[in-house]
Amino acid sequence: MKHAALSARMGGLRSSAIRDLLTLTARPDVISLAGGLPDPNFIPRERISRAAADALGDASSVQYGETSGLRHLREVIAARESVKIGRTLESSDVVVTHGSQQGLSLLAQVLLDAGDTVVVEDPAYTGALQVFRTAQATLAAVPVDADGMDTEVLEAKLAGGLRPKVVHTVSNFHNPRGSVLSLERRAHLAKLADTYGFWILEDDPYGELYFDGPPPLPVAALSDRVIRLSSASKVLAPALRVGWLHGDRRVCEAVELIKQGADLCGSSLTQQIAADLFSDTAWFDAHLDKLRASYGNRAKALVSALEAGFGDSARFSPVRGGMFCWMESLEPVDTAAVLDVAVEHGVAFVPGAAFGVDADLSLAARLCFATYPETVLEDAARKLCDAFRDASAQSRG
Q1: pLDDT tens across 25-53, in order?
Q2: How far is CA 70 from CA 20, 94, 240, 251, 377, in A?
C-alpha cells in the first residue's frame, strides 16, 4: 500500500538528541546530568495545590479563555517585565503561550518564510534549532564564548552581506554554554538590529536564577526590535506550561492570530495558578531566593568536584546562574564516544555535538547541576572522571 507523502518541511527534521538521550538514560541506576530538569523537591507543590483549589472555586478556570492569555496573568507579567526593561508594558502587550517553546514556534511562523536566514548561536539551544528547521529557515551560526554571542563576528558577517530576518539569543545563563551576554554586547546587538533591520528573539527562561547578582539589562530595554520570551517552567513548574512573550504590538497581534489556529487558548486553570503565585510577591521572592541559593550551592559542588577530579585534563565554564555547566576536554577524546562508557559507570551527560551548528564540539559536554543534591553531584563527578579516564585509555588502545 502506497502511503501519502509527508510535507517537504519534514525532510530536514530530526528528533532532539537530548530527548532521545533522556529515553536512553532513564535507568534508575544512572545519575543523569543530561536533562535541564528542575529538582522536583523545589517545585512548590503545596503552594500550587492551594492555588489550584482557589482557582477551581471559579468556574472560569475550567472554561475556554482568551487566546492571548488570562488577563490577570498578563497584568502580573506586564508589571514584572516593565521593571526589567525600564518602560511600562500594558497587559495587551503580553501574549501567554503554552511554554516559551510554543512562543518561539509561533514567532517563527509569524516572522519567517522558507529560506529566510536566522542567526543562531553556536553552540545553540536545540529547541530553537528544531523550530527554525521546521520553518525551513537557513541557519547562520555565530560563536558563543564566556561573554555570550560574539557580536563582532556577527557584525563582520553583516558587513559581508549576511541579511538575517531574525537573530536568536539565550542572553542569560546560556543553554548550553552557561554564559551571560555582556552589557557591551547587548548594546552592540541592539545597535546592529536597528541598523540592519532584523528582529532579535531574546529567549530568557533562566534570567531569574542568578547566583551572584542579576544579569545586565535585557536586550529588550535597548531596542524596540526585540521580542522577549520567558517562562514559568524553571521557577515554578514545567507542568504548568506557562510561557509568555512581548514586543512589537504588530508582531504580538500576529502571534495571537496564529495561536488561534494552534490551540485556541491555553489552560485557564494553570494560568490562574501561575497568576496567583506570581502575584504573591512576598512568597515568590522568598521562593526565588531559595532556588538561587540551592542551585548556586549545587553548581559550586559539581564544578569543584569536577575540577578536582579532572585536573588539567578539562576545563569548566564559570557558573553564574541557570542550570548548566559547560565542559571542554583538553584531551582528544570524543564525548559522544565517552557517553556509552559513562552510562555504564552510572552517569550521563549531553555530548557537545548535540548543540553544534558549524562548530566542532566533539570535545565538549553539557552538564546539568539542578536536579540532584550536592552529595549526588559529587558522586556523579567521580563517575564522570572515571568514565573519561577509561574512554581515553580505550581510545589509545
Answers
A1: 567 889 999 989 999 999 999 999 999 99
A2: 34, 10, 14, 19, 39
